[in-house]
Amino acid sequence: MISVNDFRTGLTIIVDGQLYRVLDFQHVKPGKGAAFVRSKLRNLRNGSVNEKTFRAGEKVEKAQIDNRKMQYLYAQGDEHVFMDLESYEQTELASSAIEYELKFLKENMEVHIQSYQGEMLGVELPNTVQLEVTETEPGIKGDTASGGTKPATLETGLIVQVPFFVNQGDVLIINTEEGSYVSRA
């Protein structure tokens, strides 16, 4: 058990039998009445984000999440196959469980798979990934002065806004949290 006063971003807790990750929290001490903690929690099973208020000092159960380093192998229908790098054991995850992460996953990429008591929860991506541009309009000489952007389709199907100087075939560094262009690799 852990006190809500000890909340920190990224902490995984169990509330009402559901598994949540703390996205944001705020300690509130009103002039009148008892202090409380306002929090924003993501349900790890269905991905929904909920706001919940706890009384100061209230106890919640801390969940122990296991992170295993795995390699993404391939897609097989609606399932995606990952291999444990230590035991070479293969695990399948449904597309619905990793819908957002699929935009950044490519074959042979190493990621961390999160699980709770044997139940696979999802994929933890690195902060940035390198992806190749498969389709974009060619840059026109002189366009860089305005600092504008154009859409580019990457090898995973993700579409991001990139500067005019980026061309088809370039490898880009993409921020996985925001799904945005960082720089050329």
UniProtKB/TrEMBL annotation:
Subcellular localization(s) per the UniProt record: Cytoplasm
All residue ranges annotated as the Translation elongation factor P/YeiP central domain in the record: 67-121
Q: What organism is the protein native to?
A: Lysinibacillus macroides
Where mainly located? cytoplasm
- Record NCBIfam families: efp, PRK00529.1
Q: Recite the UniProt keywords alphabetically.
A: Cytoplasm, Elongation factor, Protein biosynthesis
Q: Kindly list the organism's lineage.
A: Bacteria, Bacillati, Bacillota, Bacilli, Bacillales
Name this protein carries in UniProt: Elongation factor P
Q: What GO biological process terms are annotated to this protein in UniProt?
A: peptide biosynthetic process
What InterPro entries does the annotation carry? Elong-fact-P_C, NA-bd_OB-fold, Rib_uL2_dom2, Transl_elong_fac_P/YeiP, Transl_elong_KOW-like, Transl_elong_P/YeiP_cen, Transl_elong_P/YeiP_CS, Transl_elongation_fac_P
